[in-house]
Design brief:
single chain; alpha+beta; 2 domains; 14 helices; about 55% helix
Length: about 425
């Protein structure tokens, strides 16, 4: 109570000091909750990527850019490599058709954009780190499901207001929702999982070149061998080339799992050595290392904010406590003359500084949490929540602000403790 009374006696100066700490802790809370969301997303992606060997078309990338395809014959050969357990082909494309007013998709998006993930349900491939996904409602796709069944992510369900058993249209085709994935805070929240056959068909329909090629192939298939033999050589070669097109060769990505007891890096290198001119192989170990590097910069920003909060808040408290001790020199002398120990004097002023830090930290944290919640609620309908509030992080913010106050108050407190009673009384 005495500490609180002393703070109240100099309420304007105490308010200014607390306000300085509030600003620092507010920034620390907001940036920290953003970092938690960012790291949660990255961690989920890292778990997925490091649980399989990712295979892309030559010249492509993990995000599906590049125009190459992965022929099914190539994937079948990869499946025969020593150490490979299974290979699953996949198709990835945007959930929405391109906006005529924004054909390049240049609008800003937080997190993973809504994406169709075509899955080969007949493959025995399993991601080692992500064997299954928890379901909020319904069930996951299974072998034998018809082509009109889909499973949607948490954000997709929220954004589209889709429910289990709903009949929905995706790129002009009707599907039935059989499951909604529980919130993962990462990629699957924005995914629509469907069997690979309809995903291929949607992908071909969205690609003018592939659409034309398929139409030529369908027309060529109707020409009999007898009619083909009677055609000019050049025409016959063009038709034969069109006939060679296979829908099964339209794969934008693939994933390989390795057998128990095998080293993922060794198996990855075997695939690279044999198919280096045909595919791009992303090994789990190296991809994990690249992801770790990407998180360092963002986390360094958070550390910088914490240091700024420490410096600003610390100097504010030091200034306040030094001025407070100067004004209360006579009071300190009287206390020591009445038998107060140096330790009790030091403890009193250290605790006062700690309480100032605690109050500033609590208010700053509260404002930061409120800001994060309001922004998340505003962005939730677009699946763009960018803050993650966790109780253990909030405890760290409170403890951190209290420690800042204690550390900043140590120097003034020991200065007060070292005063001699007679000199302190005489000073005023």
């Amino acid at each position: 109570m005495e500490i609180l009374r002393n703070m109240w006696r100099r309420k304007f100066r105490t308010f200014l000091t607390i306000f300085g700490i509030v600003i620092g802790m507010f920034a620390f809370t907001v940036m920290g909750s953003m970092a938690l969301k960012f790291n949660k997303m990255i961690d989920g992606g890292k778990r997925f990527i490091t649980g399989q060997i990712s295979i892309m078309p030559k010249g492509g990338s993990y995000m599906g850019s590049g125009g190459g395809m992965l022929p099914v014959d190539t994937l079948n050969k990869i499946a025969q490599i020593e150490g490979v357990d299974a290979v699953a082909a996949g198709i990835e494309l945007s959930l929405e058709e391109p906006d005529p007013d924004d054909p390049t998709g240049s609008s800003i998006s937080f997190g993973t954009p809504p994406t169709i993930e075509g899955t080969d349900l007949n493959s025995n491939h399993k991601n080692r780190n992500w064997l299954t996904l928890d379901m909020k409602d319904g069930r996951m796709l299974e072998k034998g499901d018809s082509d009109d069944k889909i499973v949607i992510g948490y954000t997709i369900a929220l954004d589209k207001k889709w429910h289990v058993s709903d009949k929905v249209k995706i790129r002009g085709r009707e599907f039935e929702v059989i499951g909604i994935i529980d919130k993962t805070m990462t990629g699957p929240d924005s995914y629509v999982f469907m069997p690979i056959t309809p995903a291929r068909e949607l992908f071909i329909e969205a690609n003018p070149f592939l659409k034309s090629l398929k139409e030529q192939s369908d027309n060529a298939a109707k020409i009999s061998d007898r009619a083909l033999a009677a055609m000019p050589t050049q025409t016959r070669e063009q038709i034969l080339q069109a006939k060679s097109f296979k829908v099964e060769d339209v794969n934008t990505m693939a994933a390989a799992s390795w057998k128990d007891g095998e080293d993922s890096e060794t198996v990855s290198n075997r695939i690279k050595d044999q198919f280096k001119d045909e595919v791009l192989v992303l090994s789990p170990v190296k991809m994990g290392e690249e992801i770790d590097k990407a998180t360092v910069i963002f986390n360094a920003i958070i550390l910088g904010v914490a240091i700024i909060a420490l410096v600003v808040g610390g100097f504010s408290i030091i200034n306040t406590m030094v001025m407070s001790i100067s004004e209360r020199t006579k009071e300190i002398g009287i206390k020591k003359a009445m038998g107060a120990s140096s330790w009790s004097i030091a403890r009193e002023y250290s605790l006062e500084a700690g309480i100032i830090g605690l109050l500033g930290g609590g208010i700053g944290m509260g404002l930061g949490v409120l800001t994060a919640i309001l922004l998340n609620n505003k962005m939730a309908s677009k699946g763009a929540e960018i803050f993650l509030i966790q109780s253990n992080f909030l405890i760290v913010v409170i403890v951190f602000s209290f420690i800042i106050g204690i550390i900043a108050g140590i120097i003034p407190a020991f200065r007060a403790a070292r005063m001699k009673a007679v000199d302190a009384i005489r000073e005023l």
